[in-house]
Design brief:
Blueprint lengths: L1 H16 L13 E4 L4 E3 L3 E2 L4 E9 L6 E8 L4 E7 L3 E7 L2 E10 L7 E2 L3 E5 L12 E4 L4 E3 L6 E7 L7 E9 L7 E6 L4 E5 L4 E11 L4 E3 L3 E5 L1
Parallel strand pairs: 2-10, 12-19
Antiparallel strand pairs: 1-4, 3-4, 4-7, 5-6, 5-8, 8-9, 8-10, 11-13, 13-16, 14-15, 14-17, 17-18, 17-19
């Protein structure tokens, strides 16, 4: 009997010491450092007439073994990516061009990943002033299905910025055809939302043209969503 009790006690001790500790901790999102958000990057090293090499930097994130840097050319929507175990990486990118960049944190101990914020910047070129950044369409998310409100409306929302800080207005185009050709309104630089009338069971397309005080423009590209 004593041996049986002692055996059960040892088994319980082993179970308590070697029990399930839960899943490994997931990586956390990195904090971006450079190039600064909504800035002109002037520190790149010239590669040729059209390209310069820019070094991207971010802070180390917890539970992370490697990072994937993604840099998207906002004129072409073509991404460049590079993976590294350090907190910086260099890429050759087009001069005088707007970019969006972000960092994804990864760990071999977890199947989860974490994304940083996305920052916009212009890679310096020969120009002294820059067009505004293409508006970043926020709501409704592209490809989503949404409910209209009691007024049969959906509110379009976006974010806009400019290196020169001289955005003048936003022109919104919206329709059930792609590309959206119906002009539905202009908002001031401080207003980045606009309600539009919609019908149920319909797919809609929309985009925003940003204009600065010098007449420069940029095109957000087209988003789509469906109304219940």
């Amino acid at each position: 009997m004593i041996r049986k009790i002692l055996g059960l006690a040892i088994l319980a001790l082993l179970v308590s010491c070697g029990g399930d500790d839960g899943p490994p901790p997931a990586p956390e999102g990195a904090e971006l450092v450079f190039p600064d958000e909504n800035s002109e990057c002037t520190t790149g090293t010239s590669v040729n007439e059209t390209l310069s090499q820019v070094t991207f930097q971010w802070k180390a994130s917890k539970n992370t073994e490697s990072y994937t840097l993604s840099v998207v050319n906002l004129d072409t929507n073509v991404p460049q990516t590079i993976s590294t175990s350090t907190t910086s990486a260099s890429l050759s990118i087009a001069k005088g061009t707007p970019f969006a960049w972000s960092v994804t944190s990864r760990s071999s101990r977890s199947d989860q990943v974490a994304s940083s914020e996305t920052w916009l910047f212009y890679n310096a070129g020969s120009q002294t002033t820059y067009p505004p950044f293409p508006a970043q369409l926020v709501n409704p998310p592209s490809g989503s299905t949404v409910l209209k409100n009691i007024a049969n409306e959906v509110v379009l929302e976006w974010e806009g910025a400019d290196v020169d800080n001289d955005v003048a207005s936003f022109d919104v185009f919206f329709s059930a055809s792609n590309p959206p050709e119906s002009f539905v309104g202009t908002t001031s630089a401080r207003t980045m939302k606009l309600p539009v009338v919609v019908e149920s069971a319909t797919v809609y397309y929309w985009k925003v043209i940003t204009t600065d005080q010098e007449g420069n423009t940029s095109d957000s590209g087209v988003f789509e969503f469906k109304v219940y």
